[in-house]
Amino acid sequence: MKERVSKRYRHPELDTKLNKQRLNQEARCMAKCLKTSISCPGIYLVDSKTFRIYMEHVAGVTVKQLVWSVVKSVKSQLNEVDFASPVLVELATSIGLLISKLHCIRMIHGDLTTSNLMVRRRVGSVGIVGSGAAAQSANPVLGSYEEVGQEVVDAVMNAYGDPSISKDSCGYGYGYGLEVVLIDFGLGKMQASVEDMAVDLYVLERAFTSTHPGCEVFLSNILYGYEQSVPLSVPAATDVEGRVEERKKDRANPNKTGSVAAHAKLIKEVVDKLEVVRMRGRKRDMVG
Fold it and tell me: Hey, which residues does 182 pair with through a beta bridge?
C-alpha cells in the first residue's frame, strides 16, 4: 500500500488537489504498463479519499540492494567486481529492455533509480532460482521479504561464480529466471517527449554512478539492451506471412504508432538526445 501524505506547508485545498492529481496520474501510468505487459506491481484498489493505492507486493530485492550485495561479497574475496559477468550482463540488458518498452509507449518513469528497480524470481522459471525454498517466493505470504530477497541475491551470486550454468529457453532478458520490475510511478508521465526520455536515462546513469562507482560496464549494457530491444518491443505476428504483411505496413507508414520502424526511430532519437543531456549535466557540474 502506498499513501500520499498531506503536506502541512501547503494550503489544504491545493494539497488535496495536488495529491488527487498525482494519485490518479500514478495509477494511470501503472495501469497502462500492465496493459502493455511492462512489469510493475498490479493494482488492487485506488482510494481517492485517503490518497492510497493498494497494490501487489513485489517479492524480491531492489537493484541497489542486489548490486551492493554482489560488490560486498566479491570484494571480500577478489577485491574486484566483474560487471561483465554473464548474470550481471543479463540483468543490465533486462533493465535496458524494460525501459525501452516503457519509452516506446511514450511514457517515462520520472525517477529511475536503483531503488525503484526491483529484481524478483520470474514465476514459472526453471532456472537457477527454481529449486528448494525459492518456489515459495511466488507467494509472498510463505516467506518474508528478507528471505525472498536473499534468494535472489544467492541466485545471482551462484551464477556470478559459475558462468557455465545454462540458461533456460525463455529468451532475451530472462535467461536466469529473474525479472526486473518497475515500482513507484509517483513522477511518471504519459505523452512524454524525446527530451523527457533522454533525461529519464540520464537520471538512471547518475543514480548508478553516484551509488555504485565503477559500474560503467553495467551502464553500457543497460544502454545496449535499450538500443537492441526494438524488435522485441512490438508483438510479432504468429505466422511468416503475417510478419511480412506487418513489415510492409510499417515501411508504408514508418511513423505509425506501435510500428517497429517508429520504435527504432524513437530509440535512436532518445540515444542521440542523451548525449546532449549528458553534456548539459557536465557543464552544470563544472560551473557548480
Answer: 117
Mean pLDDT of 231-237: 46
| Alpha-carbon span 27 to 7, nearest angstrom | 20
DSSP bridge pairs for 43:
55
> Which of 9, 28, 31 has the alpha carbon at shortest distance from 20?
28
Q: Which amino acid, residue 75?
A: K
Burial of 132: CB neighbours in 10 Å, binned 0-12, 13-18, 19+: exposed
CA distance linking residue 174 with residue 196, whole number of Å:
28
User: What does 204-221 look like in DSSP terms, one character per residue?
Assistant: HHHHHHHHSTT-HHHHHH
pTM equals 0.80
Instruction: Tell me how many degrees the CA angle 234-238-241 measures, rounded to the nearest 5.
Output: 100
- Tell me the Ramachandran region of residue 11: left when phi exceeds 0, alpha when psi lies from -120 to 50, beta otherwise: beta
**Which secondary structure element, helix H or strand E, spans residue 244, and what is its range?**
helix 240-252
- Of the candidate ranges 103-112, 124-133, 145-154, 263-272, the one whose mean pLDDT is the lowest: 124-133
Tally Cβ neighbours within 10 Å of residue 102. 27
What is the maximum alpha-carbon separation in the chain? 62
Cβ atoms of 187 and 109 within 8 Å: the answer is yes
Rounded Cα gap, residues 164 and 70, in angstroms: 18
